[in-house]
Amino acid sequence: MLSIKNKILRSLKWTVLSSAIVTLGSVVQLSVLTRVVSQSEFGLWAIANVFIGFAAAFIDVGVGGAIIHKQDITPRQLSTLYWINIFAGVLFYLILLACAPLIAWYYKNPALSAIVALSGLNLLFPTIGIQFKILLQKSFKMDVISKIDVCAFALNFMVSVVLSFRSFGVYALIYGNLAGSLTAALAYFFLGRSLHRPERYFNLREVDFFLRFGSFQLGERLINYAHEQFDVFFIARLCAPAQLGVYDVFKRLIKRPIFLINPIVTKISLPAMAYQQDKGQALGFIFQRSILYLCSINFPIYIFAFVAADPIIRMLFGPAWLEGAPVFRLLCAYFLLYSTGNPVGSLLIAKGKASWGFYWNLAILPLSALFIYAGSRQGITGVAAALLALQVLLIFFNYFFQVKPLINAPAAGYFSNMAKPLSLSLIAGAGAFVAGLLFDSPVEKLIAMAVSGTAVYIVLSFLFNKAFLEEIGGLIRGGASRQPAKPL
Length: 488
Known about the structure:
Elements: H1 2-34, H2 39-56, H3 64-69, H4 75-106, H5 111-119, H6 130-138, H7 142-165, H8 170-192, H9 208-238, H10 241-254, H11 256-275, H12 280-307, H13 309-316, H14 325-338, H15 342-350, H16 354-376, H17 379-407, H18 411-436, H19 442-464, H20 466-477
Helix pairs in contact: 1-7, 1-11, 2-4, 2-5, 2-9, 2-10, 4-5, 6-8, 7-8, 9-16, 10-14, 11-12, 11-15, 12-14, 12-18, 13-19, 14-17, 16-17, 18-19, 19-20
């Protein structure tokens, strides 16, 4: 246990560092690009990404989770799976190329054909290194993954910003993404070969387990992706590209805390849960910690963003984007609740229950489509409100149909890990709001709100959520807290 604990602590530090650099850098990148690239061009990019993302879900054929779950995988099985990844990338890129003119016709914008075709190269590049990244994650080599991610993002940042100032428009976004994607893929390929070197070997019968496991993972991923992109799909059809651009930029920004915090938990808790998959108490303990970390860190960030929406928008994007403030706030509330879902997905994979996630997402797909379609009739504000209403329902369904059957977690313990951080965050948010009333300048207002809100939250956490602060302090020092949370 000591060995796995040390691996988790070491991985956590590297993941925190790289995630912080990439997330904060992405905010700066987005702030720069929105002042140069038009809202309409961001809208076209958003449409293209809907289809690129859908095709990208097929690339690893859903077997990434199976590779982490399976503790006795052979080199020949890995080789077969590697070539399947390569074949899937080529196949779906060709399909996307064939569909590009149809996409442009459907959205009545000829420029989309070239945009989709060029962006689709992101289906080919990752196949080179995707398996090596999974093996590095399974081996807790987060230092390697972190360095690669930071370097790839740095190149993405430089290329996109330089080209945007040279009037490349939407193509600045595309070339930046492609540069980062290719860099990461090649780095994973060359640095991950110490764990496995693909052979010229292919036998589907030997990977039957992985394909069956992966089929549910793939199905779940596709359905979950549909949930996430229904909003963009309907907005793109019913609203002008500029409105979609505003919505998509806000959505990208507000998702950043999830990109920063949730991967830290998921990348570490997934292999840790898989390692303890047959030990109910230990598994429940890791799951409980995951929920506590996510809520205690994500909730105050989203409450603060909700309260400070106006100065945030004014500083990052300029006054022209302030009309979207109501959408910004609704998305903050939605992602606050949405951010709690990752540990459940990790739990399903660790327990080998990929099929559960698939059937769960399949069951709620019609409900998601109904909510978002109804909201889309009221524009981007209606879509954001519909997403929030839907997530309120799903957070309860998630517990009763997935968490409780798997680890028999009591409802009081599960929801208290969310309720306490939420209550403390709301009080801290109120303090930040009051502090903001004392200033007129957006910069001064934002600084005052951030300082006061943070101070109030830390004091409240010390009084009512001390175990979390001690745990974070222990992780920073490289050890465990003195008062660990009770297992579920």
